[in-house]
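Ligand-bound model needed. iron/sulfur cluster.
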Amino acid sequence: MYDYEKVDCINCGDCSRRCKMGLDPEKLLDLYNLFLDGKEEYVRKEIAKLPEEQRPDRCFGCGSCQFFCPKQVEIWKTLGRFAKLLKE
Ligand code: SF4
Ligand code: SF4
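Prediction:
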């Protein structure tokens, strides 16, 4: 099991509309939650389908996606954790 907690995302999509790097944090955070639910194999396959530039490790932590998040999700920190988990 992992020490991380799932994120409380309500899928408003605001973060994905703001990311200038073309990432889709909303989708990535859904996958992160599924990963923590034990669906690792499925999640790894879904990540592998994404172009490399849209994977969690391509978030450079600018933070512009999370300023308006209605749930104050720590998006870039979570994507960093997710990238780390995927490398294990
Ligand atoms: S802005 Fe926040 S609540 Fe909305 S999709 Fe992104 S992480 Fe989820
Ligand atoms: S913190 Fe990451 S996901 Fe958020 S806008 Fe910046 S590059 Fe995109």
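Residues 18-19, 21, 23, 25, 59-65, 75-76, 79 surround iron/sulfur cluster (ligand 2) (CB under 6 Å).
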